[in-house]
Amino acid sequence: MRRVIKVIILVVMIALLAYGGLCVYANCIATDPSRLEMPTAEEAPYSFLVENTGTLILSDEYEKFGDTGGSCTYILHGYWELIGMEFKYRENDIVLSEQVFGEITVKRRQ
């Protein structure tokens, strides 16, 4: 009986160590941000950061409607979005409204 308990404890300890190792790998090694390849500044000269969610969207062409803070609307004509660990290009338009998403910071990339 003691031998069975020792085997069960050993199997549980090995499973916990394996789980811990996989967690470290998935969160620290596999998601290394230095491996992230962004479009060049020539391809996507503008970055749009949605402050509430931390979402980063890149675009080469956009229109802005409204001038007062909190009520601006941006229409991006073609954009790159982060999917997993790479940026994917979408050809369609996307509408970003500060009334819906909150503060949006627009910067020109260098």
Task: Give the key terms.
2 helices; 6 strands; 2 domains; 6-stranded antiparallel sheet; alpha+beta; single chain; 110 residues
Structural class: alpha+beta
In angstroms, what separates the terminal alpha carbons?
69 Å
Shape: elongated
Q: What is the oligomer described by this structure?
A: single chain
Number of domains: 2
Question: What is the typical, i.e. mean, pLDDT?
Answer: 88
Helix content: 25-40%
Radius of gyration: 23 Å
SS elements, strand count: 6
Order of helices and strands: HEEEEEHE
> In this structure, how is the largest beta sheet organized?
6 strands, antiparallel
Residues in β-strands, percent:
35-45%
Describe the structure.
The chain is of the alpha+beta class. It has two domains: 1-31; 34-108, no CATH class. The chain is 29% helix and 38% strand. It has two helices and six strands. Strands 1, 2, 3, 4, 5 and 6 form a six-stranded antiparallel β-sheet that branches. β1 (46-50) and β2 (55-59) form a beta hairpin. The longest helix is centred in the N-terminal third of the chain and has 28 residues, at 2-29.
